[in-house]
Amino acid sequence: MSSQTIQKISFNVFLLGLVSLLADVSSEMIMPLLPIFILSVGGSGIIIGLIGGLEEGIASTFKVIAGYFSDRLGMRKIFLVFGYLIPALSRLFLPFSATWQQVLALRSADRTGKGIRTAPRDAIIADCSTTECRGRAFGLHRAMDTGGAIAGSVIAFLCIWFFAMDYSRIFLLAAAVAFLALLPVAFVKEAKTEPRKRTLIASISELPKPFRFYLLIAAAFAAGNFTYMFFILRALDLFGRSIAITVLLYVWFNIIYSMFSLPSGILSDRIGRKKILLVGYSLFGITCMLFAVPQSPILLIILFGLYGLSYAVIEGNQRAFASDFVAQDLRGTALGTFHTIIGFSTFLSGLIAGVLWDSGHWLSFTYGALMAFSAVVLLLFLKPERTEAA
After folding, report:
1. What is the pLDDT of residues 165-187, one digit of tens each?
2. Shortest CA distance to 264 belongs to which of 118, 121, 124, 134?
3. Would 119 disulfide with which of 223, 265, 320, 336, CB 3.0-4.6 Å?
């Protein structure tokens, strides 16, 4: 690979990371406040689980469709434009919500935008990198994405603690930042790919068998990886419902997530993604087990760090691993299918965790731990057979 190509790849990944950074500044100004906002407009534990799961479930339908059409048309960038524009518009109206049903509708629209952009964006990242450096590329993207999350949650904390801003003004500020995220998209250069004339079903049927088994593993983990909002609610219980301290815990989670995303991606390039994911799934299971038992505020700080570390190890490497199984002309479809399966599993996990939560928080976290360890067992039987030419 020429140095010119490497520079082009690096710039593309950097640009996509910058887009995600700005988008996450916007998103994370809202997310640590969202469960509290839902409660303020009449929601409950079950409603929080419903919104956390359903917003992903609805969006997931678009992930495989957008991924497939990005392969079929041989174009990916246009999906990024709409994928970032729709959330910006939905966040503009969020502060005017008066009921949890309105929050549900707007959050579903927000995540629909994510569904439209995710597979094509990940396909561009994968197209710009070889197997040997793909973990690093996805790790860099996740690190920049989470860097935005840190900035967004810090801004939310400052808005509450120092400026005494209410939800409406914070959410409107978040919407303004979301529109800024559209600017770097204009400079992204997508690789030219030949349009595929196959139908969606035909394209999915071409996905290799090892990849399909990997989907089962990822789905098992996602079925227990319920929304972060339950971790926030657990912190509220232990810190006397102090919103500011809870936001700081969320900042801490994102700091650890950002710090270790790139190193874990580099490590997966060196020792293999299967080994890395075994560690990540196990770490998430242990974290859930510890969240299930009574604990002190100090231990909770440690647990939010472990929660962030597990995400750093899992998120980018799951995507890189999914990309390893398929050739470039099927990558959008494969990643779309991957994200769709995970999204629907997350929808189920939110509903199940919400129902369990109202009977006892420890039941939700125990369920999450069991599903994580189930994914570990399944992953032990996976024999990766990469079918792509690097």
Report:
1. 888 899 999 999 999 999 999 88
2. 134
3. 336
